[in-house]
Amino acid sequence: MTQTINADLSPQAVQKLGGPEWLLEQRLSALELFHALPLPDRKVEAWKYTDVSYIDFAGLRAATRVAPVSGQDELPASVRARLQSTDVAGYLVFDGPDVIFRNVPESLSAQGVVFTDLRSALESHPQLVEKYLYQVVPAEVPDDTTIAAPGTTPSKSPDPSEGKFSALNAALWTNGAFVYVPRGVEVELPLGSFRTMHESGVFTATRTLVVTEENAKVTFIDEQDSPELQDAYAFGAVELIVRDGAQLRYVSVQNWGRGVTHVQRQRGDVGRDATLNSLVVTMGADLSRTEMQSYLRGQGSSSEMLGLYFASADQHFDHYTLQHHAAPHAHSDLLYKGVGADESRGVFSGMIKVDLGAQKTDAYQKHRTLLLSSEARNDSIPQLEINANDVRCSHGSTTGPVDPEALFYLRSRGVPRALAEKMLVTAFLEDVLSRVPLQSVVKYIEAVIAEKVGAA
Known about the structure:
By secondary structure, this protein is α/β, with parallel strands linked by helices. The chain has helices at 11-15, 21-36, 77-85, 106-110, 118-124, 126-132, 164-172, 404-412, 417-433, 439-455; strands at residues 3-4, 64-65, 90-95, 98-103, 114-117, 177-181, 191-196, 203-212, 217-225, 232-242, 247-255, 260-270, 275-282, 287-296, 302-311, 316-325, 331-340, 345-354, 362-371, 377-386, 392-401. The longest helix is centred in the last third of the chain and has 17 residues, at 417-433.
């Protein structure tokens, strides 16, 4: 049995989403901001290479509510295949706005770990959700560049380009994953969220909140996959809170079908001597805009930011990254690699920002793009903003075609061109994949790459 959400972008529609009074106030404030802000255009530096003027917010229709399934056998085939090949401690499956299946063992709860969907968490753990929700990806446009500690006062973003999409998500999110790992607890196997949608002409707004308390450790896999759709939209927000001494590995794999527009902001807040390892993989959708940002709040904090993407046909992939150093003796290392085929377009804009007083910062940023076609295009904008005088920061970017000598070498030994290109692409991306200790995820990515190389 299905039920349709009122898709009207009005206060009445927001009120129908339900929830406690504090959440309704945040939603209504975000909705007001959404209507006040203009749609970002190419006159704005952060959106200079990506045109989203075709999005008609007035014509958006919310995705249809989906009833839960009774067993894993009733899940979409693509989700079943991923679950069978992925070793996880527990997982949630979402279809559009709803969680349709969950497998969360009691052993997690026995450790004090909370792993559920956000709507359920609002009922079962309301104080935790109220404490942390909107703290890292806020529901309002900030007026300065200072971020308050999560769980205290609402945060202020280090990125001045907060805008319409974040406000839309803050106002209209319907569900998402909630992970809370208490102090000193280590979750050995990854937790997973697998999201799909099956409906054309709709939008979904989802929100993920992961909290690791002091000296806790967890890996979270966040995957999105769908068949080919028409005029579908996925607006996401991901909040990653890594308390002092904690370790969080976050993996995002976006493989929506063609016909989808994907816009998502992912931000981590990293405490003293804490570590955030992130991997952003972009393979699907017609247009994808992903922002991955790490705020290194605590002294001795560390952030590893890995990314890879493969754009083919006329796909347009835009990645914006921010390594924001706010404390001394912090380390960040970014490595993004992309492949462009056919008439695709890739955009990478990366910023290393070092605040006044963040001495002994150690930050690296490297972006490389491989073009398989003379019609493919890539724009790369590495940037530095340094306000301290005792730092070590470097950035670099290269874009180029497949090495003709390497291709000739393989072809001369009888390797078909498609297989030769696959081998060279895999080798090009290997230094990213080799840093990912999740073999099931790596194999899945390699399979998608092989499929895209064959199609190209």
